[in-house]
Amino acid sequence: MMDFTAIDFETATDRQNSACSVAVVEVQGGEIARSYSTLIRPPRLEFSPFNIEIHGITPEMVEHERDFTGIWPELRPFLDGHIVLAHNAPFDMGVLKSSLLANHIEPPEFLHCCTVQIARKAWPELPNHKLNTVGAFLHVDFRHHDALEDARACAAIPLAAAERLGVDSVEALAAGLHVSIKSFDCTPKYPRRFDRPRPRMVQ
């Protein structure tokens, strides 16, 4: 069965531990069964103008929202024991990992797969495999960089690819396209690398 969770994070800055929005869409039997989305107050109420321009979330919008620890009990059930898909999974898995480590939260156990890789293998003829490009190709009408809209568009990719290949599970889809499914790794990496120079922040 096509059972999985699609996830999307938006961040306040280029720091991975700056999630300001998250959404998940749970697919069961090839149909969206439930979804969850929320704004998040990042650890530092700092936002890069570049990031604000992308997703439209401002410090004022999240000032009174819960932090990652506060929303985690609602988010975790969508991840534990699931196959989790994300468009550019290294980014979203990195945000999740950094947020868990920063808040000393026991990590969930799940497998994950990248829909960019799925799209590249399923539709190599596309000019690129950005979410908006693939979404347009699949006739998915969505508002890019809104976390819930992006999660829904992400979910459409493995469903369409599975139909094209004639398979009925994410595992079979990944095997047919030679795409990897990995275990979520929340092991901290040491030594810590210096942060990249940050753009000017607005507060």
List the SSEs and their pairings.
Elements: E1 4-11, E2 19-28, E3 31-39, H1 49-55, H2 59-62, H3 68-75, E4 83-86, H4 89-102, E5 111-114, H5 115-122, H6 131-137, H7 147-165, H8 170-177, E6 182-183
Parallel strand pairs: 1-4, 4-5
Antiparallel strand pairs: 1-2, 2-3, 5-6
Helix pairs in contact: 5-7, 7-8
CATH topology: Nucleotidyltransferase, domain 5
Strand residues, percent: 15-25%
N- to C-terminal distance: 46 Å
CATH superfamily, please?
Answer: Ribonuclease H-like superfamily/Ribonuclease H
- Elements, N to C (H/E): EEEHHHEHEHHHHE
Rg, please? 17 Å
Describe this structure in words.
Helices cover 37% and strands 18% of the residues. With 203 residues, the protein is an alpha/beta fold. Strands 3-2-1-4-5-6 form a 6-stranded mixed beta sheet. Helix 5 packs parallel to helix 7. The chain is globular, with a radius of gyration of 17 Å. It starts with a strand and ends in a 20-residue tail after the last strand. The model has no long low-confidence stretch (mean pLDDT 94).
